[in-house]
Amino acid sequence: MEQINLVNKIYKEVINPGNCFHCGLCEGLSNNLFKMTNSDRGPIPKLNRKPTFKDIPNLKKIVLACPGRGIPYDYLSKKIKTKKKSRILGNYNSLYISSSKSKKIRQKSSSGGLIRTLLIEMIKTKEVDYACVLDEKKNDVLKFDTLITNSIERIYNVSQSIYQTSPLLHKLKLLKKNKTYVFVGTPEQIASLRILKIKYPKEFKHIKYLIGIYVGTNMYPGAIQFYLSGNGIKNIKNIKKIHWRYGEWPGELRIITKNNRILSLKKFYYNYLIPFFISKSCLITPDFTSELSDISFGDAWSPILENKGHGYSVIITRSEKFDKILKKLEKKNHLELKIINFQEAIKMHAHMIEFKKIGSYLRIKKFGINGPIPLYDLKPNHVSNLRKKIEIFILSIISIASNRKIKKIFSFINSHFLGYIFKIIRHFWKLISKPTKRKGLDNLKFTKVNNIRLKEFL
Predict the structure, then answer these.
(1) What is the pTM of this model?
(2) Which residue ranges form the domains of the chain, and what is each CATH number?
């Protein structure tokens, strides 16, 4: 029967081979057919009941919009009206550096407070009825859920950046069709919603705007427990509060225990957790900048800005509406806004853009040897042999570090020491690999790929 075949397709192509992006779409679009279930490899959808013929329409939507099957970015990006074309940043209208002028908002935020400022403005001006954003559950450490709110106070106090695989789309069925919503999500979550809006415009017109965030790497849930072990804390239940980006930008990991002990680690130090807990989903997508969003935000990494502290974001607008809103906020003196050029935007994230645009292609090709992989409609024209060797080395490090026994050994080592060593290694690694990666990015061109995934949209 068709419903059985559709469910089998999801398991065969996405869940069983480990291609799930943990977005929550399966639960969000079905009538209690799937339920997101926690695992050490992130939240995974599991069947709640046997599918029936009534599930077929929703299953078809899930199969079409599932990011674990791949996204035809080149095809879909042409459905968004923009002024400028780019297969590196995604098509766009304008590029900015910006920061909120509210010190209170910046202190609550990770990268200048722009998303909070934008959401508050959109609610106040009734541009939308509700904002949908990931937030930590009250009194439940490391448990996150989709916050659907029109409360300015709730938006003001929403969680900072969250570096843990967490679903956002599992509450789609709770949205009211007679209200309007703005979603803040990761590249794959935004891509899924864009597909639904393009293919089913009437059914999903209530999801009015899509705000994307830059996502380079994300981690499985065990990362914080690993960090705690290196600080002599055995049980996550002893933790009262976790801040991923506390204090002056770029911030630090700050954990408060129930006996008021405070653990802290600089942003670039706690990146040592990445090789041990990096999620497969962020290794198999070429989208770093949320290319199918209406507007996207990332840290404005620049030596000058980093030395200033304060907190800055790089912004990519892909909708004239958001250019107008940003200029309106600037006029109200709510934010600083400076136009930058394409090369400046690339330079701020050149390493991670290359990691996605070239690295993901090499990784997917390797993973494809063992089973189904996500299918995309672009591939780089040429990748040097040296770059291929660099990727083999990267995957080898991740493979070793993610081994359970290796993680167990390293979990007993002090986190400050590991963070310091990791920062030194990372610095030298970027120096060594930068010429090869930058050269590959400067000369990067793409070839269209006509595959079975693309044909589903034609």
Answers:
(1) 0.95
(2) 2-69 (3.30.70), 73-220+279-349 (3.40.640), 351-455 (no CATH)
